[in-house]
């Protein structure tokens, strides 16, 4: 390394240290002197390479605390101060390795300020393979994810995982990233949610930075794109995903995608993109059965250091089917009560938690919310939507409501029939199919559905 030591390197160290001083002064006004003294002030900038600025903290605790509490702001401020997107990595000092002295650090800093933008991605260490419970509901997805993590770009490329909200898709994406990075911390992994991809892309378009944007998504060894359904109806972004996909695929980089529905149901996606998406392993995740739910609950309780009174875990698991997120929501609600009583969740606490969670249905909009959305949009009352009227505009709004409810809640036809004013399940199915086929031909309808779908996602 020392033979690469040059005058320019010196300039970068100065840049890094100057940038850090600016960041510290912003942090001082944002967080106050105490945080600076205890945490940020003890960080030592050691390296600036490949769009990553590395810092050393005095302990694991400080490193984790800073990462969790200040990570996002620091990334952002540091990027602004250096004039190019960078990510901050904080390592704790490990006793038996010699401390990297200033001179060594200086020498290893190469000129990076002008290099292509490197994607920023915050690892989420909560989600790992060892705390993901496998069951018959997610067997294929889990096997695929593990394979991809151990042999990126080899067997299952792309890997496409789909299933309703709250069943562990994002967990698996992070587990893949974490395993790869545990093995090789320098492996260029990028996790991104499709909504953020869209926002970054729009920003790049507006600021004439499309080339840099593209580089940042192609300069990776593994590309994890979450919630791809969020770009339905966004033609330009889909086009960009298509090109990114092709580039990565041709260069044997691993691609993993998640969605709440299978590729063929990604309405408004071009056929060529859909074909690409389903060209590797397509694996679904279904809601877990009761045994798996109990196992998940027990593990989450252990992680959160809370216990169940006899039979209470079974009670929770049998009373909250569907989304694991809801189950976790109930656990958290119950734990809040249990904290004041020896950290044991009793039957009555569990009952109250089930009630509370059922009232909100964590993450998924309720049917009545979807109906209200449709009612507002088409100016047709909820009663009319559920009622018998066959007037064309009411029937059309009703079919669209059915379509959205199915897509969003994934309820059974029978259940949706009941929710739609006690209709027969075949009538409901017919309404769904009608919209489904019309969407292929009718661009306006397609846009309308996408608009409603994205509004529903923010409910
Ligand atoms: P999705 O992305 O499918 O909407 P998430 O990955 O966000 O769902 O999962 C929601 C919550 O449920 C997370 O806290 C996750 O850890 C948990 N979870 C889901 N499935 C499992 C599982 N099989 N084992 C352990 N935790 C799970
Ligand atoms: Mg998710």
What does the radius of gyration come to? Answer: 25 Å
- CATH architecture type of the largest domain: 3-Layer(aba) Sandwich
Q: Class of the largest domain in CATH?
A: Alpha Beta
The number of helical runs is: 20
Mean pLDDT: 83
**Low-confidence runs of at least 5 consecutive residues:** 1-10, 94-118
Shape: globular
Instruction: Label the structural class.
Output: alpha/beta
Number of strands: 10
- The topology string of helices and strands comes to HHEEHEHHEHEHHEHEHEHEHHEHHHHHHH
CATH topology of the largest domain: Rossmann fold
Structure description:
The structure is a single chain. The chain has 459 residues and is α/β, with parallel strands linked by helices. The chain has 4 domains: 11-92, DnaA, N-terminal domain (GMP Synthetase, Chain A, domain 3), CATH 3.30.300.180; 129-284, P-loop containing nucleotide triphosphate hydrolases (Rossmann fold, 3-Layer(aba) Sandwich), CATH 3.40.50.300; 290-358, Helicase, Ruva Protein, domain 3 (Orthogonal Bundle), CATH 1.10.8; 367-456, Chromosomal Replication Initiator Protein Dnaa, Chain: A (Orthogonal Bundle). It is 56% helix and 10% strand. The protein contains 20 helices and 10 strands. It has helices spanning 7-31, 33-38, 60-82, 102-108, 139-150, 169-183, 194-206, 210-218, 235-250, 271-277, 290-303, 312-319, 324-338, 347-360, 367-378, 382-386, 392-409, 413-419, 425-441, 443-457, and strands at residues 44-49, 52-57, 87-92, 159-162, 189-193, 222-226, 254-259, 281-284, 307-308, 344-345. The strands form 3 sheets. It has a 5-stranded parallel sheet, with helices on both faces. Helix 9 (235-250) links the parallel strand 6 and strand 7. The termini are far apart. The relative contact order is 0.07. Mean pLDDT is 83; it is low at 1-10 and 94-118. Bound molecules: adenosine-5'-diphosphate and magnesium ion (MG).
């Amino acid at each position: 390394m020392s033979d690469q030591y040059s005058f320019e390197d010196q300039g970068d160290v100065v840049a890094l240290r100057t940038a850090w001083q600016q960041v510290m002064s912003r942090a001082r006004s944002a967080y106050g002197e105490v945080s600076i003294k205890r945490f940020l002030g003890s960080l030592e900038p050691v390296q600036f390479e490949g769009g990553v600025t590395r810092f050393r903290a005095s302990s694991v605790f400080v490193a984790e605390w800073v990462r969790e509490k200040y990570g996002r702001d620091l990334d952002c401020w540091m990027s602004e101060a250096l004039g190019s997107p960078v990510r901050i990595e904080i390592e704790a000092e490990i006793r038996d390795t010699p401390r990297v002295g200033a001179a060594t650090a200086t020498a290893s800093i190469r000129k990076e300020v002008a290099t292509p933008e490197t994607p920023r991605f915050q690892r989420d260490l909560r989600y790992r393979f060892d705390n993901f419970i496998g069951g018959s509901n997610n067997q294929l997805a889990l096997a695929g994810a593990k394979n991809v993590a151990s042999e990126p770009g080899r067997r299952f490329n792309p890997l496409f995982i789909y299933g309703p909200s709250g069943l562990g898709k994002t967990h698996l994406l992070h587990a893949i990233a974490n395993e790869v990075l545990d093995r090789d911390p320098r492996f260029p992994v990028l996790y991104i949610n499709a909504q953020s991809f869209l926002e970054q892309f729009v920003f790049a378009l507006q600021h004439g930075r499309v080339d840099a944007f593209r580089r940042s998504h192609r300069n990776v060894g593994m590309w994890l794109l979450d919630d791809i359904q969020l770009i339905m109806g966004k033609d330009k972004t889909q086009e960009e995903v298509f090109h990114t996909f092709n580039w990565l695929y041709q260069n044997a980089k691993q691609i993993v995608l998640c969605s709440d529905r299978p590729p063929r149901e990604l309405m408004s996606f071009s056929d060529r993109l859909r074909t690409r998406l389903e060209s590797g392993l397509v694996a679904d995740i279904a809601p877990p059965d009761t045994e798996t739910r109990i196992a998940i609950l027990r593990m989450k309780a252990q992680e959160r250091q809370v216990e169940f009174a006899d039979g209470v875990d079974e009670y929770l698991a049998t009373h909250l089917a569907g989304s694991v997120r809801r189950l976790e929501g109930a656990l958290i609600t119950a734990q809040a009560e249990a904290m004041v009583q020896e950290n044991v969740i009793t039957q009555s606490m569990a009952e109250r938690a089930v009630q509370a969670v059922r009232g909100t249905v964590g993450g998924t909009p309720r049917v009545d919310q979807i109906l209200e959305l449709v009612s507002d949009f088409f100016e047709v009352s909820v009663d009319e939507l559920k009622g018998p009227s066959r007037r064309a505009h009411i029937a059309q709004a009703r079919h669209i409501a059915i379509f959205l409810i199915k897509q969003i809640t994934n309820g059974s036809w029978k259940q949706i029939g009941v929710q739609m004013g006690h209709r027969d399940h075949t009538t409901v199915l017919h309404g769904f199919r009608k919209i489904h086929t019309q969407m292929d031909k009718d661009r306006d309808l397609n846009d309308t559905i996408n608009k409603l779908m994205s509004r529903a996602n923010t409910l």
